[in-house]
């Protein structure tokens, strides 16, 4: 099989798997119980997502700085 075609097929299967997992009642229920309220106001959701994205960006920047410092000294 052509490598490009195999990669495309793998990507499509991954998207399908993730969609199935998201649609799963069990997975959605677990997420709602753990961290996502099943009922929310849109403004509240945007605020929570913004905070989480900012937190992740700060973590990514810190990891990048550490990696750069490690490669510069090593």
Automatic annotation (TrEMBL):
The lineage of its organism: Eukaryota, Metazoa, Chordata, Craniata, Vertebrata. This is Tim10-like domain-containing protein. Gene3D superfamilies: Mitochondrial import inner membrane translocase subunit tim13 like domains. It comes from the Eukaryota. Residues 7-46 form the Tim10-like domain. It comes from Scleropages formosus (Asian bonytongue). InterPro entries: Tim10-like (IPR004217), Tim10-like_dom_sf (IPR035427). It holds the Pfam family zf-Tim10_DDP.
């Amino acid at each position: 099989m052509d490598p490009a075609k195999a990669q495309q097929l793998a990507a499509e299967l991954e998207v399908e798997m993730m969609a199935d997992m998201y649609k799963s009642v069990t997975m959605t229920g677990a997420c709602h119980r753990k961290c996502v309220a099943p009922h929310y106001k849109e403004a509240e959701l945007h605020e929570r997502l913004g905070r989480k994205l900012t937190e992740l960006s700060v973590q990514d920047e810190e990891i990048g700085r550490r990696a750069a410092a490690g490669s510069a000294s090593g």
